[in-house]
Write a structure and sequence with these properties.
The chain has 2 domains: 136 residues, no CATH class; 84 residues. Helices cover 30% and strands 19% of the residues. It contains 8 helices and 9 strands.
Amino acid sequence: MSLFEPTIPFGEPELMRVSDFQRYLHEPGGPRARVVTELTPGQPSLSQSLLADLMRFEHSGQASEVLEVLAACVRHAQHVVVHLQMGESVVPLTVFAVDRLVHCPVSIDALLLQRPTELRVLHVEPAVLRPPGDAEASLVGEGHHYHPLRPLLWELALRGARSALLPEIAGQVAYRVAPGVDLSGLRVAGALPGAIQKLQGDRYTLREMAEWPGFDTERASRLLNALYLQSGLIVSRTRPTGFGESFFGALGR
């Protein structure tokens, strides 16, 4: 994953082939060949806090996962373009964290049909496109390419590559669902409704959840990640003197 800003034209381009995109990233003067140390006045840039998170993912020695990158974008409330590898093509997914929208030149159904476990992050850059209704109308894309962010986060958490807890909610903790959490419009099936109902009534550890019918450690972790990304999870960190509650449900607010 590259973290520096290229000058890829904004808009709704035809999907680029991965091989062509990789050549662009590494060409002389391209993002991989230079390090941006000074920001050009007026040029969109990644916030230092988001950049630090993305650098942490890259320095871990593993490819950045789509879910953790999107979670960082939402957590830092920054509008970015995440270039995803989908098969042999590159899909520019623009995330409008504050507006809870995404812009994607292919349908979200098509994106998720391509085995979300195989989606890979190739590059992250500041967004140039704007959300619907923005004063810069020339930078707003076609309406049918905008989609709600919430269902995408939910599906990627439940079906994507990441099978472990996001680091922000991992540790010696217990979990419960925040009162009034809105899960309307999301696919909640199988063992999920019963699990969510239990979490609304009391707090449970990951180990306890893994023993529920239809669950194991991976399924429990995926559900907790999904709830966290819906601003619907309360995390209680364990201490020798008891529990101290932390409202991780405030994500992205």
